Amino acid sequence: MADNQEDGGAKDGGVAPLADEGQEEVKEEDLVPIYPLVVQCDINPEWSEDVVDKVNNYFEKHATNYEVFAKTIKLYMDDKYAVEGKWNVIVGDSFSLDMFCNKNSLMYILVGGTTAVIMWKCP
User: Fold this and answer.
1) Counting Cβ atoms within 10 Å, is residue 49 exposed (0-12), middle (13-18) or buried (19+)?
2) What are phi and psi of 2, to 5 degrees?
3) Which residues contact 82 (CB under 8 A, 6 or more apart)?
4) Model's pTM, two decimal places?
5) Which end of the chain is more exposed for a tag (fewer CB within 10 A), N or C?
6) What distance in Å separates the CA atoms of residue 69 and residue 90, rounded to the nearest whole number?
């Protein structure tokens, strides 16, 4: 087998270079995380992993339509975790929030890098 690397093949065990000639390397601060990031979680620890997975799955399906995304999360939370009261959900890119809520009823997640999902339960 020829050892010709002109076809863009990788030199080191199948690992391709990050940038081609003439292109800038990707900086770490320019990368957008593709996994959900839990900013604040005050819900039952047994629920949190399930909720994060569902939010991430719904984001993959409804990333461009925040209204459908928020309604889908709310319906899921009301169906599965509405023991006392209903859940409220806000989804968006540029907003701030300052609120008081009941204990064990708040979750704040970032998905897709910049999309925030805030959920809390009302008694």
Assistant:
1) exposed
2) -70, 150
3) 121
4) 0.69
5) N
6) 9
